[in-house]
Amino acid sequence: MKKILLLSVLFSSSAIANVHYATGKIADIVVGDDIAGKAVIYIENFSEANTCPKFTAKNLVIASLPESKYSDSLFSAALMAYASNKEVKIRVDETKRDANGWCEITQLRVNKNF
Q1: CA 110 remoteness from chain centre
Q2: Considering the domain boundaries, does residue 76 fall inside one?
Q3: Can you tell me the distance from the alpha carbon of 78 to that of 109, in angstroms, rounded to the nearest whole number?
Q4: What is d(CA 29, CA 42) in angstroms, rounded to the nearest whole number?
Q5: Strands 54-55, 19-30: pairing kind
Q6: Is residue 7 part of a domain?
Q7: For the whole model, what pTM was predicted?
Q8: What is the pLDDT of residue 34?
């Protein structure tokens, strides 16, 4: 029983270590042919997420908004927050990557305190 408990703790902590959160204003939103997903979003001061690639000129994590059934809603929320200069909270998972190898956004919250 102790071995099972220890293994479950080890596996759950390694899964949590792959998830990273950032809170801040959206510094930039990039769309274009060279983007693998719907868009790339840069969050101010989001400069470290373990193995997630960074845009070195600005020292910001490249957070990819993947094509999914939620991508239009996430994109709309990001545009609204950017246009109104509001902070957001995003979650990226370094085990989920787009075709460019950039870490994917798995959640975007407009209410950063929720």
Answers
A1: 14
A2: yes
A3: 9
A4: 6
A5: unpaired
A6: no
A7: 0.79
A8: 85
